Amino acid sequence: MSAPRKIPNAVLEAQHKASDPAASAWVSANAGSGKTYVLAQRVIRLLLDGTHPSKILCLTYTKAAAANMANRVFERLAGWTTLDDAALETEIHKTGVKRVDVKRLARARKLFAEALETPGGLKVQTIHAFCTRLLQQFPFEADVAARFQVLDETQQTQMIETIRLDVLLAASARPDSAEGRALATIITLTSDFAFQLALAEAIREGEKVMAWLSQAGGIGGAMAELSQALGIDPADTIEQIDEKIVNGPIFPMSEWAVAAAICKASSARDQEQCERLTMAAQATGSDRIEKYLQVFVDTKCRPRDKVVTQRLTKTNPSLARTLAEERDRVCKLREQRLAVIARARTGALLAIASAVISRYRAEKEARGFLDYDDLIAKTRDLLSRVSAAWVHYKLDLGIDHLLIDEAQDTSPEQWDIIERLVAEFAVGAGARGTLSRSIFAVGDDKQSIFSFQGADPHEFEKKQRSFKRTFEAAAIEWRDVRLAHSFRSNDSVLTAVQHVFAQPTIFRSVTTDEGGISPHLALPDAAPGVVEIWPLVEPEKREPVPAWDQPFDKTSETSPRVKLARQVAKHVRLWIDRKDQVGSGAERHAIRPGDILVLVRQRGPLFEAIIRALKNQDIDVAGADRLVLTEHIAVMDMLALADAVLLPEDDLALATVLKSPLFGLSEDELFALAWDRKANLRATLNERRPEIAAKLAAIAHDAQRLPPFAFYADLLGAGQARKRFLSRLGPEAKDVIDEFLNLALAYESRETPSLQGFVAWLRTASAEIKRDMEIARDEVRVMTVHGAKGLEAPIVILADTTTEPQGPIQHQPRLLNLPAQQAAPGTPDRLIWMPNKKEDTTPIAVARANTVADAIDEHRRLLYVAMTRAADRLVICGSVGQNRRPPGCWYDLMVDALKPHCSEEPADIGEGSVLRYRQTPSKPETLSLFDLPPAQPARQERPDWLTRAAPHAGVALAPLSPSQLHDETAPIARWSGEARRQAMARGVVMHRLLQSLPAIDPDHRPDAARRYLAGKSKDFTIEECEELARKALMLVEHPDFAELFSPHSKAEVPIVGRIAGRIAGHMAGHVAGHVAHGGKTRAVAGVVDRLVVTADAILIADHKTNRDPPRTLDKVPNGYLAQLALYRAVLSELYPGRPVRAALVWTEVPDLMEISDAAMDRALATLTSS
Fold first, then answer.
1. Is 7 exposed, middle or buried (CB count within 10 Å of its CB: 0-12, 13-18, 19+)?
2. DSSP 2-16
3. 3 state SS of 150
4. Which of 368, 418, 715, 993 allows an S-S link to 145, with CB 3.0 to 4.6 Å?
């Protein structure tokens, strides 16, 4: 057990001040200063003060953070249950509670059970999870499907990709359509690759795009606004401007030849101008424009200072003056031309993007899907509507204390939701009287690194001022707290951070504090540490080799990245072998692989090289923290297997599979099989290796009869493929294989299962897997800085320090924001597709500069996050190519700040030297017997059942759905497409009204029905909406239906149970023939429209919207009767001794037709037999 750390009283006081629930608090916390601890402590103090767990809402940034926070609270509360009074009192005092009495001790012991037993548990969740629950609670008010599904990233990517391809194919097929013309413009003005990147970004920014187009009234209006922002006339065209360029009044084309002849007789530079004029005169179309512009602008597209030389100016001043005036005129026209081209490209992009976004939205609505952006937007809209006042009332009853973790990563849209949630906290009594309520936020603007997800670091400080002003105006206590002490890093690391971010030009990028970043202080017992700067790895100097010797004598050249990766791996190996010490106090120990974290800006060649170099040094490494599933070799092999069994003639796929761990053939065996074959590889395999051919045939047979998940699960389990993959590829393949199977299962839940369909779907979806690097594994972690947010390690190596400050080129934005001038607040920005930098006009150049400045600011915040991951030792290294390193890169920022304070010392490896920075002098360390890591327990043999195939359990039948017993669309199947759609829409609307209206106050029902139907105006006329509302209200308020729609009744109730027997008649094929197999029962699962449970009886009812309903029982379809009979059979088991009455509600009449027990018995008898 480790000894407790020495924590100064000032640190404890700050923590207690922040966690005190008596006041609202805004906590600015440096990296490693215990944000999560303080947040958990405040939750515990709220519970100690008597707050019910259900009244606390804690919003975190990630699911992992939510789980971590909840675990901390539960672990601490669980520990309290076993303590004696004295120990428990001490623990409660540690939270900051000053007075502990018997009553508080008793409550402390009950908190664990109370938190566990609270329905839904402690509400510690991401804001997306909160929005999901809120929309599920109020779907009617939010106008979302009652049982909507949230799209995950894989589903969303696949859906968008399918729609994008459909839109582009339709545009290509119909060139006269708006999308067709837009596609033609794009093909003319840009490359396919640039267009794909810009289109992907426009789709990601769908909310911005559609908000602008909606505000502007469409593409035309948006282009008019963009023209104004660019300083051009909306009517300007490229053709008009081109004509003005070559046929101007100052230097008409008729004078070009004369001017060219004069230039030809002058100096060499003037002769170049002669050649340009001559080429322009000979060219046609847009080529002439480009050639003519070259006369007046240089290779960097800047206006030439002098069009002709000084010599020619003296001999022919008139020509020189004419050309100077023409340069000024042409350069203005060139700027207009570039603006028109940029507008045309942007308009074409928006036409395609808006078509994709519109179809994507329609597809989501039709299928009842919401993506993560929808969750935020729908919740914000719900909370902002006056008509949803009672939603606010219900929320006001449910939330007394709101806590926000990682507040700096909250987007403006998410802040809108938070502000509406706490709107009642500081305005008086509200629904809860004068109850004390609070808001608590903790964050650090220096660590705001998720701008690509909408986070704005300036919002953290703005919201702090806004909330403080609101709460203080209501005379509610407010506290601003700063946590400066690090529980993670030592003095050397922290003072290095202070040096790097000391200059105003640097700290203004990471914090809004005018005086610079706040002090970073280490705890008194922090161990000595070091910051080490290695020289940059440079490319090998290439000696010129005579051309005659080049093919034979050329030496291999090692990439600087590869050399750096090897250098990192050798140092790690040395530190481990040398048993260097890390940690503080009783936690001090010899270095293990799990103590080392290598950080990069992006996953790429350096990332892969480091992982490979560490493996070559026999160092345990965790592998990539995130990877594209289809790019992992194990998944590639499994997809190749599908290709081989689906298309036996695919020799390449089969060869790939044979060499993979699935079959394990060597290069020589594969060559012997493939060489000099007379037929395809599959046929040759049958002839030369029949044992392998038989195995492949068995796999192909399984592929034909099994759905994708069962096929791959059987292959990986009973077929031993998982074991072979892990043996060849290592334990990192486990996560990949598991995620592959998860996606196969998810695919089957959404699509008709087929192996070919699954393979195509997976390749389109480009699914990514995120591996949890917080799991305690004794492996070196190699991660991006974004992925390492929230993590720490004793030793951190910053390996990727020479990346451009603007970020990797593939991650730089393609769309620029042009803010609307003198516009009302909330007016959407204009968007423009960023051209090549040489083609920037003045407004575009300003927008680009703003974007670059924002990127540089985030680049520096990323550096802060990277440096503060280190606890003991920080290593700074990097590599450069043939080009010089970019100014402002991380390496320059750190070396420039730290070099004056460093000492030059011998390197650990090689003959060179390194720079080392220490805040305190280092002491020689010796390793005693007590410093050695504990001995590892003897390895146990695996039980034999672990590698045996599980016994066959037979085929499990899907639950029988009563609603499938009768096809309710059959009566309308013969109708036209529009009539069928109208009838189905009518049924859906009537069911929704009958489901929701009984729960609404009778006085408000008509308004609620009209508001709901107003959103369905595209499906029904005003008269039809009124008729639907009238019939629904008549049913709900009719005396004959009073019991059915009473406040005690339930709507849309799931009915799940089991019955025994054998399916008879036409249903046999539908449910695989049996309700029971060998005496086993068959599950029944469905949803009944209405359920009433009383002490004497059970009443169930199903709504039917048939336009011509039957008037007598003998005319009712048997499927309807069997449906109710199955519900009655299950409910009879649930409520023995109480009769179950069943009825059909014909909404068109209206009529309540109660079904007799005898009729249902007959229906069930025809459906099943004992």
1. middle
2. PPPP---HHHHHHHH
3. strand
4. 368
Residue of 322, 458, 361 lying closest to 151 (CA atoms): 361
Q: Rounding to the nearest 10 degrees, give the CA dihedral for residues 641, 644, 647, 653.
A: 110
Which tokens sit at 297?
A: 């602008």
The residues near 734 (Cβ < 8 Å, ≥ 6 apart) are: 726
Strand segments, DSSP code E, in 501-619 are 521-522, 530-533, 581-582, 589-590, 596-600
| Series of mean pLDDT values for 10-residue runs along the chain (1170 residues) | 72 92 92 90 91 89 83 89 89 88 88 79 87 90 89 87 94 94 92 91 92 92 93 92 91 92 92 93 91 91 91 92 94 94 95 96 92 93 75 72 91 91 72 72 90 83 92 90 92 94 88 86 88 91 60 59 94 94 85 94 88 91 77 92 93 93 91 89 90 93 92 92 89 85 88 90 76 70 89 94 83 85 78 90 92 91 94 94 86 94 90 87 38 43 64 59 58 56 79 84 85 76 84 85 84 82 37 40 82 88 83 84 87 87 85 86 71
Q: Write the CB contacts of 840 (distance below 8 Å, at least 6 apart in sequence).
A: 338, 848
Number of Cβ within a 10 Å radius of residue 930: 5
H or E element, residue 209: helix 206-216
Burial of residue 434 (number of CB atoms within 10 Å: 0-12, 13-18, 19+): exposed
Return d(Cα 1112, Cα 1149) in angstroms, integer. 13
- What angle in degrees, to the nearest 10, is found between the helix axes of 102-117 and 63-80? 140
Rounded Cα gap, residues 699 and 680, in angstroms: 19
C-beta of residue 492 within 8 angstroms of C-beta of residue 529: yes
Single pTM value for the model: 0.75
Nearest to 1057 by CA among 1081, 1091, 1039: 1081
Q: Quick one: which of 1034, 1026, 1025 has its CA closest to 1002? A: 1034
In 484-584, alpha helices (H): 491-500, 504-507, 550-553, 560-578
Q: 714 and 702 in contact (C-beta within 8 Å)?
A: yes
SS (H, E, C) 331-346: HHHHHHHHHHHHHHHH
Whether a cis peptide bond, with omega within 30° of 0, leads into 1150 is yes
Q: Which residues of 868-880 are buried (b: 16+ CB within 10 A; e: fewer)?
A: bbbbbbbbbbbbb
Helix (H) / strand (E) element for 1089: namely strand 1082-1093
Extract the tokens encoding 661: 């761990």
Task: State how beta strands 149-150 and 123-126 pair.
Answer: unpaired
